[in-house]
């Protein structure tokens, strides 16, 4: 596939569809986010499988996170995560200063209320990828000024 | 050298976007902008079909016209979007400029922006911001002191 | 610190897999939401249409081609340029109707079905129906349904005339 345009358009249609099929937008918002997140989860699992086929085993959790920030992010979004921070207690913050799926939406605060639905799928992707590498987590996203975005990964200790 | 204004019409003749930079005189057609859009589109529509009827060969068609004071540049995509740029006479050809606005700004920030509904007027600040920056950076954008 | 193993990930391939997997998830969701395949097909066509009307602008702005002179040229552009650009394949154009207003696109390797096995109870599901919608949207004309997933038949219905909107004089 030549580029990411087909995926972007498909992603947008997916969101449109999920939101249109919901009757009561307010009450259903949470459920829609969950639906999108779950879809992302399964796709993240599939992608990481293909991506790690010929990869050496990971040293530790941090090693895995670095892989997500570099290889995984690059293969999906054509760039790396700009900043990775951790409290060394199972919380990681991945910051993307120019997140691909927000880049066309806004350069600032316009349409900010729309942002969460364009992030849910990606949260799922990350959670799915991690889960396939044996890391159980909760992934949430936070935006204040687009197109920058922070993904927070909370590792769930088994 | 200067740029006066820009119109973007869809294939049904609705004005999706309008902005002006160095336009000192209003058309005085009507208080309403809407009326001006309609007249502009109507004129373009007529010129365009007349020009292609007159043409000895089937090619290109209508690109621009000029008066003693300004030049209107016209660019139409195969999908029927029309970009119209009015400049002063020193700008002889704005085709690349209009093509750039279509490819790198309109497609990038309107077509790919899920919030922008096709054939609705544009309210994306991202698009208008980038467009404004692009226009102001053009070599022939330089508002002369009146 | 960085893991420079033999990770020669073909990013184009990943991109296509992301698309294929996402599409699969969408079809799965639709099958969950609708009882009969007809409805799913209809939804896919509708979504495809929405994508098509946007994708055509992306396509025109990059390929820099002008207006097609006739339907044969359109067929060529779709198969040789558009499919190549977005799906990395070149379908063959065949089965022209005598009047030259219908043709088929045959996709030998349809990337959308890469990881798919259709369950038996979805025999009428047209898995790749999205593509029909995309083409319909892109061309703003009606496509006819193919006999199987990898044949897409296009019929020229009419040229959309551009009219001046009825103005209040």
TrEMBL record, chain A:
Gene3D superfamilies: Trafficking protein particle complex subunit 3 (3.30.1380.20). It comes from the Eukaryota. GO terms for cellular component: cis-Golgi network; endoplasmic reticulum; trans-Golgi network; TRAPP complex. One of its GO terms (biological process) is endoplasmic reticulum to Golgi vesicle-mediated transport. Keywords: Endoplasmic reticulum, Golgi apparatus, Neurogenesis. It is found in: Endoplasmic reticulum; Golgi apparatus, cis-Golgi network. Belongs to the TRAPP small subunits family. BET3 subfamily. PANTHER family: TRAFFICKING PROTEIN PARTICLE COMPLEX SUBUNIT 6B. This is Trafficking protein particle complex subunit 6B. It comes from Mola mola.
From TrEMBL, chain B:
Pfam families: Sybindin. One of its GO terms (cellular component) is Golgi apparatus. It is found in: Endoplasmic reticulum; Golgi apparatus, cis-Golgi network. GO terms for biological process: endoplasmic reticulum to Golgi vesicle-mediated transport. Keywords: Endoplasmic reticulum, ER-Golgi transport, Golgi apparatus, Transport. May play a role in vesicular transport from endoplasmic reticulum to Golgi. Belongs to the TRAPP small subunits family. BET5 subfamily. PANTHER family: TRAFFICKING PROTEIN PARTICLE COMPLEX SUBUNIT (PTHR23249), TRAFFICKING PROTEIN PARTICLE COMPLEX SUBUNIT 1 (PTHR23249:SF16). Part of the multisubunit transport protein particle (TRAPP) complex. The heterodimer TRAPPC6B-TRAPPC3 interacts with TRAPPC1 likely providing a core for TRAPP complex formation. This is Trafficking protein particle complex subunit. The lineage of its organism: Eukaryota, Metazoa, Chordata, Craniata, Vertebrata.
Automatic annotation (TrEMBL), chain C:
SUPFAM superfamilies: Ligand-binding domain in the NO signalling and Golgi transport. It is found in: Endoplasmic reticulum; Golgi apparatus, cis-Golgi network. One of its GO terms (cellular component) is endoplasmic reticulum. Homodimer. Belongs to the TRAPP small subunits family. BET3 subfamily. One of its GO terms (biological process) is Golgi vesicle transport. May play a role in vesicular transport from endoplasmic reticulum to Golgi. This is Trafficking protein particle complex subunit. The keyword Lipoprotein applies. Keywords: Endoplasmic reticulum, ER-Golgi transport, Golgi apparatus, Lipoprotein, Palmitate, Transport. PANTHER family: TRAFFICKING PROTEIN PARTICLE COMPLEX SUBUNIT 3. It comes from Mola mola (Ocean sunfish).
